[in-house]
Amino acid sequence: MSQAFRNGDGGRIDRGKRLNFTFDGQNYDGFAGDTLASALLANGVRLVGRSFKYHRPRGIVGSGPEEPNALIQLGVGAHTEPNTRATQIALFDGLIGESQNAWPGVGFDVGAINNLVSKVIPSGFYYKTFMWPAAAWMFYEKFIRSAAGLGKAPSEPDPETYEKRTVWCDVLVVGGGPAGLAAARAAGASGARVILADEGSEFGGSLLSSRDRIEGREGADWAGDVIDDLAGMAEVRVLPRTTVASYHDHNYLVAVERVNDHLPLGERHGPRQRLWKIRAKQVVLATGAIERPLVFAENDRPGVMLAGAVRTYVNRYGARPGNRAVVFTNNDSAYRAALDAADGGISIAAIVDCRANPEGALVRLVRERGIEIVSGSVISGVRGAKQVSEVEVAALNDAGDDVVGARRSFDCDLVMMSGGWNPTVHLYSQSGGKLAWNQELATFVPATAAQKSREVGAVNGSFSLADALAEGTRAGAAAARDAGFEVEGEQVPACEAAPGDGVLSLLALWDVPCGRKGAKRFLDFQNDVTAADVALAHRENYSSVEHFKRYTTTGMGTDQGKTSNVNGLAIMAGLRGVDVPEVGHTTFRPFYTAVTVGALAGINSGPELLDPVRKTPMHNWHETHGAHFEDVGQWKRPYCYLRPGETVKQAVDREVLAARTSVAILDASTLGKIDIQGPDALELINRVYTNNFATLKVGQCRYGLMLKDDGMVFDDGVTARIGENRYLMSTTTGGAPNVLNWLEEWLQCEWRDLEAYCTSVTTHWAAIAIAGPNSRRLLAELTATDLSNEAFPFMSWQDGEIAGIPGRIFRISFSGETGFEVQVPASYALALWRALMTAGEKYSITPYGTEAMHVLRAEKGFIIAGQDTDGTTTPYDLGMGWIVSRKKGDFLGKRGLERPDTLREDRKQLVGLLTENPNEVIPEGAHISPAPDSAKPVPMEGWVTSSYYSPNCGRSIAMALLRRGNERIGETVALPLEDKVVRAKITKPVFFDEEGERLRG
Amino acid sequence: MSRTKYSIFSLLRQARDYHRGWPQAWRSPEPKPSYDVIIIGGGGHGLATAYYLAKEHGITNVAVLEKGWLGGGNTGRNTTIVRSNYLWDESAHLYEHSLKLFEGLSQDLNYNIMFSQRGVINLAHNEHDLKELTRRGHACRLNGIDYEMISAEQIKQIAPIINISKNIRYPVLGGSIQRRAGNARHDAVAWGYARRADEYGIDIIQNCEVTGIDIENGRVTGVQTTRGPIKARKVGAVPAGHASVVGRLAGLTLPVESHPLQAMVSEPIKPVLDTVIMSNTVHVYISQSDKGELVLGAGIDPYLSYAQRGSLDVIEHQLEALCDLYPIVKRLRVMRTWGGIVDTCPDASPIISKTPVEGFYMNCGWGTGGFKATPGSGWVFAHTIAQDRPHRLNEAFDLKRFESGFLIDEHGAAAVAH
Amino acid sequence: MLLIECPHCGPREQTEFTCGGEGHIVRPDPATATDAEWGHYLFMRKNPKGLHFERWFHAHGCRQWFHAARSTVTHEIFAIYGIDEPPPAIDPSKAGSQ
Asked: A297 φ, ψ to 5°?
């Protein structure tokens, strides 16, 4: 069987280019220009999937993004992609597709047992059962879960790539049908930057499925000519295969271009998809309309299709979805589809029209063709398990709520249905635009736009070709004008459409009666929601639009309700006895059609690009010398340097010892550095630190603590006075940007009278801390600066030349050891590091990492903001009342420290802890309990903020925030761990060189 | 309590008549002129409050006023995570009480809220994360809340789709798991509470917006609504994102800011993930629903908004990190994104409190953590309203703490950093 | 994503900016402020539904703070003005204020 349902001519496929593909293991062929759906139909394949809940056999319903049934697992292995719509998959040679949600196969599916018990499992059944015995849900859920989902995720990482572009334009035209093309041409002619995007592979939209003529040519040819015109305009960008998927604030729209998806794997180059982020001055939405199904008994049988889709398959693809059709409609548009189908070789058995007296140009044309019209009637049943074989037709009663009289049967293999058309208002609604109910069209149409957008053509409820062209032309010109361009002579293209074009004369019939109980009338095909489910939701008072949607799951499938939503609302309105607008509609959410995760992520993932990696100038040296890195914010910092055969703990201990016994160096470049200048620099610093800086002389340094205005510790660091009106403030590594922003905010917003300027110089200057008894000796070998205590006392700094490199030497120490910090311009830092390593060889100089730094400072009881504080810690809690000035005026946090809770005496205060067993290291984060053996909840009175083994003390040390800690020095406290209770003595939080002799030595 | 009990038997019985005999899950009554208690806000918390007022305190002359449709705020917009692994005692006890109520809620409500205790994993991506999680772990253990630290390899065993390679930007160093935590069906929680509250005779009045709060001599006397004035002896407000708007009606300014919080679902796929995994550092929260959708939560948008929509860049950043951590998601598609309005407090902890207006009570500031607290919040708020004093579980969540400074800083445990 | 017109750099994407929240908050005199007043200054926010006068910081641009008058309902920005300027007169109903 080779394309038995393909017409010999007609359509926009290239019969010279035969493409082979596989569906469910069968080989087929199609033509270039086909979609997978059109190729399957041409090959007579009708059964393409199973529904989500009842596993009912399903066929293709639509021809575009509205398709609810034909969801395909496309491709294999790492290239597989679940839930792709056959109606939107461009056919390529070698395509492999599989049906989904069926086992063992789509023909015989075990899951169809659900269909047999469907009577017991209406909407929401799961809310009413699976509750016994208590807590049994987890048991039931296993089975329910195993039935979850449609397609399968790939099991391997995606081998393809994605990219993003950000563009600004004057006019974005969404949709390349007649209205969009006219708009783009009108706007483009003005010289405006125009982007025209269409989800199809070919521009023309409805023109590709019709036989209308514009400006004397076939519509599709006219579309091609317009695209050629646009290609000649320098400022116009034309994007085929590009779905505008979302409309955000301030005219920001996101589009996905499928760059490669239509090509065989071997022919794909560059990114698979490209995400366009478009900021448009003006937007023209020409997004068309989507046909509505009719909700009648057994309307889900394979072979029941939207009339317009059949027209598309016949006209555009030369493919016949069947040979003998019954048309079921409530409006005129299906007559046009019937005529085209008939011309395309499909015999029309009858047109069943629920209207009592259909008339109009199209109806007359059909009559003239001798096609039977069964008016005032409905399809009351459809037979055929895996394909339609027969329909039953019955007359409507006068009220239109039941069927009467004798049934008639028609043999057919295709049903073409039309319940009217819904404007594709998704993007418009996402933009915030309000919708209004149009009674004549029985649908929602745009009313008041919220952003700079214009809606033209079918999306505006203007279904005739002439209107589309006129509205498009005018809107394109107006958009260009509003974007600041001059437009001359907007020429609306002349067209010849079929008689009755755009006329629906629709009679709303939402819930088609069938005269039988229990016959399923589907509303949402993918999620198996029937009219009875809506009735159940109404009966149980899930009647508001959102309750009904959620309770029945209407519109929550991959098609997002493109064919089901309005039918559902209208049926609910009928049950409630109100007009549809009173029921309202659900909010349209991004995305219009689902967007690939990879496209939204773009290239910004992976070890290099997820977040910038910040490295110090010495990074490569660290890497080649065994550094074990940790992430600190965006920075990579050596945690320790592992020697061959060493464990992390051994390395840290070695580094800690080296700093106290000889000399060790730390790459401190990541610490934030802010250069503060100006006549009021001092005043600024005085207001943001708790202590007084007024006494700081040029050449001196001072440690400062910074509070938020609530009095809680925020950051800390050493500030050096560089000149009369110039200071260099250092911050924690993670806090650097926040501190700079903090200073700027206060300077610019509150203290506008202060003249001070803050510049981040973190990466301009690299810093090396040199610690240990041999640090002075080592540094002296590399500099002429007098480093003696007298000439260079603790907490001072001097300009100097080190190893021939001009820089700054600071006599500061976070290790508590005799030490210096040397800062040089970043590009010289590696040279300096190397010079220090070379000169230090005789002292067995040891590079040390962050963990050794932490141990060293903990030995001295120095805090780390963010580790020993947590946003609820005051300087007093830290035992640092000495740093809170009582003399100077106001500073940030001062008043905050005087609030009732911050003044409480029973606050948690920083203490030291020494375990009874000196080798026992308490885990950080362990909590202290006054009653460790009590039943849970065990009372807690504090927690361990820092805890290490200190090789210098020869024992473990810890710091903790403990309730009333200050007055409890000497007490023993208990720390209940998982498996034991550790006891520790409370001490002052300083364990080594309490007098600071080494520091100042 | 005359309603049809939900069970497999009632389902079978109803099936015989094509389910035409099911009663309304709740009525849609007209408001009465006065009530003992009015609850403003028909979300999960408000409905739970009403239910516990009736069940625990015998107060049934209650109306729940909802400006839209019940359960339509954050109750119906969150990523349905339920857990109690909080740091401070105050929060831990409250959320644990809530989790315990969740454990029996389907039976209590006779409504399957599908509480699935499939575990919640928190990932650590750096030393600081590990320290935070460890600290929280010790606190939880002592508070009687299940909590285990687990290695990257153990996480991989539970969730094979996770990438624990060292060669990603922020590798997984380990994490914690609360096994009793999990997901519940968010709508069902609201609907289940509504149905039971209604059974007690409580009036749930939808499409009824409160436009004014009547106060005489410092005491609440009723409310003005779009459906007319209603008198009440006590008024409890549970307005979530609209906390400031409702608070202002009572003359209160609150320490609350309303921000968009976005979430999204993928198209449904066959099960690949049977637990919930959260990552604070890279703002990725992922689970898979029983329909097969991957449910993804993102970080909050930085600006104030009542629009239930946020900016795309938040979603982009989240998905970038998602691709790093779960490489197989790259070819899947995001089907739908949406936003809620979260009412954030400076300390990432809620306010469940009496107010300076006598008889007017406020329950708000849940930020990103409200869903998991629904039963507990309703339970303690009902107590606060009924007794005119907080339960010991919500004593600390008083509005006055913003004056005294006794904040309950849960930024670490609140998952989404504010 | 919002499009914000920096008074110094012109229209830029929101991702270049840091939102500083409510503007025009007056820091009370710490010497005389009561605990309630201080708590109010630290934590209490108008958080209006509708017109909001707020601070923005062009962090990844000119690094200048400025004010914006923006609707928290529609996100429309009505005015951008200096950090030291008083809020402009804007009809709150235009911003969907409640």
From this structure: -60, 130
CA A135 to chain centroid: 34
* DSSP structural state of residue A564: T
pLDDT tens column, A85-133: 999 999 999 999 999 988 888 888 888 888 888 888 889 899 998 887 7
H-helix segments, A592-695: 597-601, 619-624, 648-661, 681-688
Residue A728's CB: how many other CB atoms inside 10 A?
Answer: 23
In a 3-state reduction of DSSP, which class is residue A39? helix
**Pick from A274, A991, A923: nearest CA to A600:** A274
pLDDT in tens, A308-336: 999 999 999 999 999 999 999 999 999 99
Q: Kindly identify which residue of chain C lies nearest to residue A246, measuring between CA atoms.
A: C1
Contacts of A598 (CB under 8 A, 6+ apart): A158, A160, A161, A162, A272, A273, B323, B330, B331
Residue A363 has phi, psi (to 5 degrees) of -60, -45
pTM value is 0.96
Closest CA to B263 of B77, B409, B74: B77
**Strand A635-641 and strand A757-760: pairing?**
unpaired
Question: Could you count the other beta carbons within 10 Å of the beta carbon of residue A270?
Answer: 10
Whole-number Å distance between alpha carbons of B370 and B48: 12
Kindly state the DSSP code that residue A858 receives in the 8-state scheme. H
Interchain contact, C21 vs B304, CB within 8 Å:
yes
Query: Rounded to the nearest 5°, which phi and psi values hold at A429?
Result: -70, -40
Q: Which two tokens stand for residue A808?
A: 């700054």
A632 touches chain B (CB under 8 A): yes
Cβ pair B125, B172 in contact under 8 A: yes
Asked whether the bond before A499 is cis by omega within 30 degrees of 0, the reply is no
Contact between residue A162 and residue A274 where contact means Cβ atoms under 8 Å apart = yes
Q: What are the chain B neighbours of A260 within 8 Å (beta carbons)?
A: none
C13-38: b (≥16 Cβ within 10 Å) or e: bbbbbbbbbbbebeeeebeebebebb
| Neighbour count for residue A726 (Cβ, 10 Å) | 16
User: How many residues comprise chain A?
Assistant: 1001
Chain B residues whose CB is inside 8 A of the C19 CB are 302-303
ipTM, 2 dp: 0.97
Please state, in angstroms and rounded to a whole number, the distance separating the CA atoms of residues A270 and A652: 47
Q: Would the CB atoms of C72 and B404 count as touching at under 8 Å? A: no
